[in-house]
Design a protein that fits this description.
Largest sheet: 5 strands, parallel
Strand content: 15-25%
CATH class of the largest domain: Alpha Beta
Oligomer: single chain
Distance between the termini: 31 Å
Radius of gyration: 20 Å
Helix content: 40-55%
Number of helices: 13
CATH architecture of the largest domain: 3-Layer(aba) Sandwich
Number of strands: 13
Shape: globular
Length: 310
């Protein structure tokens, strides 16, 4: 029944997002794997619509944060204020205390504010005024950014990028899909009518099921070989860390579950290597690989050098 709900979730998003359908599956993999996702592309291809459609398809709380240079960490995390009536300090939670966080244009805010998301994304908790506060579950950050715009933007540091399970690109829609977008205008019509098809409890149950998906030791060794190949690659200055390997296994398990299997196959790993690994490595040639083309190309070459288990 739960897996049928996943299919309903996919179809619900497809009512609104008419572009790259593979991106929907990657987004669902991140959701099932309790991971965060960074959606990169040029303006107008549906980044915000895709993220909003996911949030509205779940019976969960949603906070949209429009990140700007003047945004402070307290604007995201919350603030402690003095209540004169109660004669005590009370905590006013910020928008981070929601299930789905849409962080729009994350590279437009300062590193100080970007770092405020680090603890939340990594440990599902935040520290404010010396107190640690747990975030509600499920919790997912869907961030968007335009990688080709440099004026008034701040590069995400490697420590921040590493917190995203995947970095995905949408690309331009096909001529047929673009014709449907022009005819329907989903952002103005169907998006407003979208209804939730999955509860928070059902989502948490599915997320718990991901850890039960079996991974053969040969496939674990395959992931380790790919990771070691990035660490010894002449084109890369920094290879994938053990956390990256762990994230790839988690994404592979979620992919298997999405395809209604309780075991991982090599394709579950191969299909996730670039979206999981490419933003975790640093190219020697391009220190700031804005669109990720150079690192994605290198990762493809790495994949071709490591034999896949049968």
């Amino acid at each position: 029944m739960s897996l049928q709900k996943v299919e309903l979730l996919r179809k619900n998003i497809q009512k609104v997002f008419l572009g790259n359908q593979a991106a929907i599956d990657k987004l669902l993999v991140c959701l099932l794997a309790r991971g965060h996702v960074l959606i990169e592309d040029v303006p107008g291809v549906g980044k915000t619509i895709l993220a909003t459609a996911l949030a509205k398809s779940l019976d969960c709380s949603l906070s949209r944060i429009q990140l700007t240079p003047d945004l402070l960490p307290s604007d995201i995390l919350g603030v402690t204020i003095w209540d004169q009536q109660k004669s005590e300090f009370i905590f006013k939670p910020g928008p981070i205390f929601s299930n789905i966080i849409l962080a729009d244009e994350i590279n437009r805010t300062t590193p100080r504010t970007q770092s405020a998301l680090l603890e939340a994304m990594n440990e599902a908790q935040v520290s404010v005024d010396g107190h640690t506060r747990k975030l509600i579950q499920p919790f997912m950050v869907v961030a968007t950014q335009n990688p080709f715009e440099f004026e008034g933007t701040y590069f995400l540091p490697e420590s921040q990028l590493d917190r995203f399970l995947m970095r995905i690109h949408l690309g331009y829609p096909s001529a047929e899909d673009e014709a449907r977008i022009l005819d329907i205008e989903p952002a103005r019509t169907t998006l407003g009518d979208l209804q939730p098809v999955m509860t928070a409890e059902e989502l948490v149950d599915l997320q718990n099921s991901v850890h039960k998906v079996q991974v053969d030791p040969a496939l674990i060794d395959y992931v380790i070989q790919i990771s070691n190949a990035t660490r010894n690659n002449d084109q890369l200055q920094i290879g994938v860390s053990p956390r990256g390997s762990l994230m790839l296994i988690r994404a592979a398990r979620a992919t298997a579950l999405l395809h209604k299997r309780d075991y991982v196959v090599p394709d579950d790993i191969v299909s996730n290597v670039i979206p999981v690994f490419a933003h975790r490595v640093i190219s020697k040639t391009y220190m700031h690989d804005a669109d990720g083309v150079a690192t994605a190309r290198t990762m493809q070459q790495v994949l071709e050098t490591v034999p896949s288990p049968v």
